[in-house]
């Protein structure tokens, strides 16, 4: 591809330390850890490049052994988005990158077609684009703190919380950023509400950035704890 053309890249920020499920990115299903499942899914999109961003040698060695693109990042980053911003700053030809997708290993079942739509949304109308899905008031996930809820209005995400919120959608934690926006986010410290909820996107909203919400019919399974991991194993088995 000509380097003057604009391109989209996907960055998979991952580390072994995880509060709810330690070392989950290297937990295996059918002989492949979650980072492998996520990388393969990301390669099915229109993105020009997929890169794993990690501070951990074990993950880096795995990527090297399997021929995955990867970049060593600082251990001090407060969020995966900061990790993505570091990779963008070192990416060869980063001036030609117009969109960066943050796709974490929590979300190995997100459909590539939905990511393609996020990339297009970020190119045309958004500072940031993300996925949401309808959530009924009686849905058990409405009271599951592992499922982030988002209030949307006019196609924009207005607020996020782990608590139940009337009229909220469920949020799928994958983002497409304009590269110029990601560079700014990578310099920000978490805001007060972001720290309280442990939701980095609240920092962005409080700082005045707009987040466009792309609605999808069904929320993909996110792997937050051991029970989710077992559900993922079952889901993979049914697809084979």
Structure description:
Strands 1, 4, 5, 6, 7, 8, 9, 10 and 11 form a nine-stranded mixed β-sheet that branches. A two-stranded antiparallel sheet has the order 2-3. A hairpin with a 2-residue loop joins strand 2 and strand 3. It is globular, with a radius of gyration of 17 Å. The chain contains eight helices and eleven strands. By secondary structure, it is an alpha/beta fold. The relative contact order is 0.17. The chain has one domain: Spore Coat Polysaccharide Biosynthesis Protein SpsA, Chain A (Alpha-Beta Complex).
* Shape label: globular
Spell out the helices and strands N to C: EEEHEHEHEHEEEEHHHEH
- Per DSSP, what share of the residues sits in E-state strands of 2 or more residues? 15-25%
Helix content: 25-40%
Which sheet architecture does the biggest sheet show? 9 strands, mixed
Can you tell me the CATH class? Alpha Beta
CATH homologous superfamily? Answer: Spore Coat Polysaccharide Biosynthesis Protein SpsA, Chain A
Q: Which architecture does the CATH hierarchy give at level 2? A: Alpha-Beta Complex
Low-confidence stretches: none
* Quaternary status: single chain
User: Which structural class do you get from the secondary structure elements?
Assistant: alpha/beta
Radius of gyration: 17 Å
Mean pLDDT: 92
> Tally of extended strands?
11
What is the first-to-last residue Cα distance? 35 Å
Tally of DSSP helical segments? 8
